[in-house]
């Protein structure tokens, strides 16, 4: 069984398999109920962040949301650990808030805590080319990005651009800083619009010869400092609040094979390891599990073994059970 809310999975784990399967699709579960006095909201698993943002009251306060309007709320809650309701026991609640809910069951709604932000937020963008010393700027950013004032968020994006002569500038110098290989993803062209809010098109993977429009490459670097850095690495399975991770999007594959690397569950990478859910399930799961969850992996396995000893809820990178 594959559990899909929005299908926002770089490796297609929620809707692709090597064996016959069926999909439990949460697409129609999109209800959003906001309690202003309590500063909380009940959100069903199929709602997108764009729908959630639109559903928030406009005339009273400003609320923290996200930069990607087509993500399903379930994806954010279960991968990064943002939710408040605990009616299932401390261990299981801890596990699904950052450990990936599809390893433990089917979740149809969440109660989340709303966080107020100032009515006015300043946003700016500074662009630099290699000729303008961009390589050194990238290096300097790595030294300070997660240490600057908590009210300042500096995200780094590196893109291919064209010179005035029409020649592509070399991106390889910058991509050497990134150890993450191309992430493959099947595009959903008809499902990504929200009230015509976007008309851009992107690809994750693909054949460059057959898909000549998909020639862009980019790397996004997000510093996880500020409030997130105050959270203990064991407070949620999402232990990586203290550190900097990169998301690489490129039409090229095989660029970074052989490099040691780690991952954040949101940026799924099957090259870290695949679980075939057979007799070696635990050993296979440990390979990618340690890379993603570090010291939290063992606790996730113990909880999984307790609540789903038969490993019914599983996928290519799910939490395994302990071997008998």
TrEMBL record:
<dbReference type="GO" id="GO:0016491">
    <property type="term" value="F:oxidoreductase activity"/>
</dbReference>
<dbReference type="InterPro" id="IPR012951">
    <property type="entry name" value="BBE"/>
</dbReference>
<dbReference type="InterPro" id="IPR016167">
    <property type="entry name" value="FAD-bd_PCMH_sub1"/>
</dbReference>
<protein>
    <submittedName>
        <fullName>Berberine bridge enzyme-like 2</fullName>
    </submittedName>
</protein>
<keyword id="KW-0285">Flavoprotein</keyword>
<dbReference type="InterPro" id="IPR016169">
    <property type="entry name" value="FAD-bd_PCMH_sub2"/>
</dbReference>
<dbReference type="GO" id="GO:0050660">
    <property type="term" value="F:flavin adenine dinucleotide binding"/>
</dbReference>
<feature type="domain" description="Berberine/berberine-like">
    <location>
        <begin position="263"/>
        <end position="320"/>
    </location>
</feature>
<dbReference type="Pfam" id="PF08031">
    <property type="entry name" value="BBE"/>
</dbReference>
<dbReference type="InterPro" id="IPR036318">
    <property type="entry name" value="FAD-bd_PCMH-like_sf"/>
</dbReference>
<keyword id="KW-0274">FAD</keyword>
């Amino acid at each position: 069984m594959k559990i899909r809310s929005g299908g926002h999975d770089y490796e297609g784990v929620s809707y692709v398999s090597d064996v016959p399967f069926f999909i439990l699709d949460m697409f129609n579960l999109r209800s959003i109920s906001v309690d202003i006095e309590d500063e909380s909201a009940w959100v069903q698993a199929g709602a997108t962040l764009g729908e959630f943002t639109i559903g928030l009251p406009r005339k009273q306060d400003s609320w923290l949301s996200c930069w990607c309007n087509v993500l399903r709320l379930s994806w954010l809650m279960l991968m990064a650990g943002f939710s408040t309701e605990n009616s299932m026991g401390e261990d299981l609640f801890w596990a699904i808030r950052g450990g990936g809910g599809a390893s433990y069951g089917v979740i149809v709604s969440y109660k989340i805590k709303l966080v107020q932000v100032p009515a006015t937020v300043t946003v700016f963008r500074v662009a630099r080319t290699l000729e303008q010393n961009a390589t050194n700027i990238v290096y300097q950013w790595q030294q300070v990005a997660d240490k600057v004032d908590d009210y300042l968020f500096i995200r780094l994006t590196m893109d291919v651009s064209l010179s005035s002569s029409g020649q592509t500038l070399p991106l390889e110098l910058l991509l050497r800083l990134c150890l993450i290989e191309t992430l493959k993803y099947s595009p959903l062209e008809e499902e990504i619009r929200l009230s015509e809010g976007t008309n851009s098109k992107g690809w994750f993977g693909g054949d460059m010869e057959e898909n000549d429009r998909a020639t862009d490459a980019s790397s996004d670097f997000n510093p996880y400092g500020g409030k997130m850095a105050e959270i203990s690495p064991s407070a949620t399975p999402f232990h990586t609040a203290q550190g900097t991770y990169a998301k690489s999007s490129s039409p090229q594959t095989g660029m970074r094979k052989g490099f040691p690397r780690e991952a954040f569950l949101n940026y799924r990478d099957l090259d870290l390891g695949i679980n075939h859910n057979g007799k070696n399930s635990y050993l296979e799961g440990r390979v990618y599990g340690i890379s993603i969850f570090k010291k939290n992996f063992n606790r996730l396995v113990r909880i999984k073994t307790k609540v789903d000893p038969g490993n019914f809820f599983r996928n290519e990178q799910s939490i395994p059970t302990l071997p008998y």
